[in-house]
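Quick one: co-fold with adenosine-5'-diphosphate.
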Amino acid sequence: MLLEVTDLKKYFPVAKTFIERILTKEERYVRAVDGISFSIEEGEVFSLVGESGSGKTTTGKLVLRLIEPTSGRIVFQGTDITSMSKKEIRPMRRHMQIIYQDPYASLNPRMRVGEAIMDPLLIHRIAQGREAREMVLEMLEKVGLTPPETFFNSYPAYLSGGQRQRVAIARAMITRPKLVVADEPVSMIDVSLRASILDLMMDLRREFGSAYLFITHDLAVAKYISDRIAIMYLGKIVEVGRTRDLFRNPLHPYTKALLSAIPVPTPGRRRERIKLKGEIPSAIDIPTGCRFHTRCPLAFDLCSREEPELMEVEPGHFVACHLHK
Ligand SMILES: Nc1ncnc2c1ncn2[C@@H]1O[C@H](COP(=O)(O)OP(=O)(O)O)[C@@H](O)[C@H]1O
Ligand SMILES: [Mg+2]
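Sure, here it is.
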């Protein structure tokens, strides 16, 4: 197993106002990630899907140890990295890369594209000088930025959003990482370019044998690329399984609602759109019992009292819902 995450939690303390500090001693927390477990195999594409605020980005940062977990365990390539120091983790970083959502914020405007992509090679002492330059030119070609010599010397300011994201992908992949966290990598890209960027990411994965933890709010995107999908709601995984099982037999009412929002390509066929009540609740005041019960069209009395656990319903397909026991 490449990555194993067990009962991972991240609570952010909420800053108190002056009055609150006088009136109460109690600390309050944003429970961004509230006890999740999953694993990713070598070369696998594993997606985290859920609405904004469900804890996806926090999970991605935790598994790369860019932020400190509150509790739980993260094992990467057989090594427990949960409480490793920055210095101890540094040699492993070449195998733990990230691609961010915003291609305008993720590149240093003063660095030429070639230098930006070369940087990880130098940092991790993989190559230098002429050899590093050759590797970068080859990578530029692979990500479709041609002629590579021209792009090598360009500054990000002269590039489109799609081209910048290709640079970010080249930079993340040049070390041939074992694990890449891709956090909504196409959601800021023009719709017409999304499929080609996703195809590029999948081609590089096949070539280098990298695994992706792919983060998206869009179940249709996840379906296109994933081996397995985990559905997150308010800091918890509510359903997880192989992509085809999840689409053939969606079990959680939240999964069904997300699915019903995907347009059906066949003319004449229609899926009934399941509309959820209200907004996702605050991660500071998480509902009792099943945290989805306040919005669930099928909730019954037990749901507000008892939290359902993830149960295996068919091989490799788990759901946390009182309707499936
Ligand atoms: N640094 C932080 N401090 C306090 N709260 C945070 C911080 N980062 C994220 N959160 C909160 O944690 C919850 C989950 O956020 P996030 O992981 O970004 O979700 P997603 O990526 O699914 O939209 C949200 O309620 C968000 O406001
Ligand atoms: Mg996010």
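If it helps, The mean pLDDT is 94.
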